[in-house]
Amino acid sequence: MPSQTFILLKPDALERDLTQEIFAMITDHGFTVTTQAQRRVEATQIVKHYDEVIKRIGVKTFKPKVLQEFVGKNVVIALCEHPSPNAIEAMRQLIGATDPLLAKKETIRGRFGVDTLTQARLEGRMLRNLIHASETLDDFTRELALWF
Could you tell me which residues come within 8 angstroms of residue 116 by beta carbon, excluding any fewer than 6 positions away? Predict the structure, then answer.
């Protein structure tokens, strides 16, 4: 039975004009993009999107970094369907490790990533890792309501 997941192409992917190449990798791995839109990011929306991360890592400076990296910029959001019962896990495997340096070369972050978590931390900014994908079914439900 097919299942769905949510993805968000971050500003760094759009600035590097990687949208078509990333979507080509997604469809090459059996996904169907069922809904796609480009959105300008609002401050309240991106903070809600990253709320769980902010709570999990407990870094007070994370919120200003999120705002600086996203607000007023464009992102591409999409719903993707996969023939397997777990599209969320399949997409997480395809995008690769959070740190592009650690991502396998056949993943999106491994193929297109140019940043590292170490460098981002040294510069006091968010990691530029191209793409977000829902981690859990609860995240998918929350992100779907937030962005669509």
Answer: 99, 100, 101, 127
Tell me: the pLDDT tens digits for 82-91?
999 999 999 9
Are 65 and 50 in contact by the 8 Å Cβ rule? The answer is no
Structure tokens at 115: 């940043």
Coil, strand or helix: which one is 69?
A: helix
Quote the tokens at residue 130.
């191209």
- Tens of pLDDT, residue by residue over 92-131, are 999 999 999 999 999 999 999 999 999 998 888 889 999 9
Q: Nearest-5° angle of CA 18, CA 23, CA 26? A: 130
Measure Cα distances from 135 to 36, 53, 71, 72, 138 in Å. Answer: 19, 11, 23, 25, 8
Q: Which amino acid is at 148?
A: F
Domains assigned to the chain = 3-88+131-147 (3.30.70.141)
Bridge pairing between strands 74-82 and 131-133: unpaired
